[in-house]
Design brief:
The structure is a homodimer. The first copy, chain A, is about 45% helix and about 20% strand. By secondary structure, chain A is of the alpha+beta class. In chain A, helix 2 packs across helix 3 and helix 3 crosses helix 4. The first copy, chain A, is globular and about 50 Å long. The two termini of chain A are about 25 Å apart. The mean pLDDT of chain A is about 90. Chains A and B meet through strand 3, helix 5 and strand 5 of A and strand 3, helix 5 and strand 5 of B. The first copy, chain A, binds a DNA duplex (25 and 25 nucleotides) through helix 2 and helix 4.
DNA sequence: TTTTCTGCAAATGCTTTGCATGGGA
DNA sequence: TCCCATGCAAAGCATTTGCAGAAAA
């Protein structure tokens, strides 16, 4: 459930950036930041809403969308879409990494590969494109699902 | 407007696969296959619909969606989403390649990099993940947009 | 002739927006 | 106190579905 070595540090960083942008730190936002900074499963808005409802019975999906939208704008969460019609949010790894999407169990695993930088550099040199950010998604079967017969 | 060396061959391949799957080749489908096999700009459903209307005034978006959905199911087009809320379709390069998405002019450039295979292999070895397909999207500025002042 | 496809309209599902109330700073 | 945030409901959009008529094979 953590994946990130420093979820607390991540949360504090997000709070800091929100304050810098003149945003208020409400209990709802604090709870959402906590979930985002600790989760490494790339939750959807609905997932976040379900978690949030445990502490705030009357909270709404709209608030979730507003907050993650805000965090996306200030660069503290990544909005990801793996082609299943709904966005997912990554708030704990704001640096380049690879996603391994298991087509069977639907899990999304993060992989840190140093060679991303080499690959990116080579690409820039060959094409003249200036890379600002990247999405590297590999779809396939995770180790656990490779042994299972039925695909 | 081509990008693919063999648009005709691509179209024939798609027709063949559709026939193999017991699908009928209608004039509308033929026109759509032609557009898809020749275009390298990753058109959206709306884009395809606009093109198609030139020849079929009464055609509908639903038909476009049904046909690209069919082609996707038989593996002849890739459905792509670059985070702008609408899907794009790639029917002329059914092999691994990199997308360079310009955040300014919104153009999507294809880049063929031999090192994709090395990168993918290294990833499999390190993580035990079996890669079936991949999405490698780089967001940034294309050569033409790098000189422009206003971002 | 049979079965699939087309295209209109309605429905769906995720996300955004408007606005009155509530709560940080 | 002054705004910003919340949360409800309604709207917005891309995509899907239902179905009657049209058209491949």
């Amino acid at each position: 459930m953590d994946g990130n070595e420093y979820p607390l540090r991540r949360m504090e960083k997000m709070i800091e950036v929100l304050r810098e942008n003149g945003c208020r730190i409400t209990p709802q936002r604090l709870a959402l930041l906590k979930i985002l900074s600790m989760s490494d499963v790339h939750p959807s808005a609905e997932d976040l809403y379900a978690h949030l409802k445990r502490d705030f019975a009357t909270t709404s999906l709209a608030t979730v969308y507003k907050t993650v939208g805000l965090l996306r704008e200030v660069g503290e969460v990544w909005e990801l879409n793996f082609g299943d019609g709904k966005n997912r949010y990554d708030g704990n790894k704001p640096y380049p990494h690879v996603h391994l999407v298991c087509v069977k169990c639907k899990k999304v695993i993060d992989a840190d590969m140093k060679s991303i930088r080499d690959f990116s550099k080579e690409l820039s040199q060959k094409t003249g494109f200036r890379v600002l950010r990247q999405r590297l998604d590999f779809f396939g079967l995770c180790q656990g699902c490779q042994g299972v017969k039925q695909l």
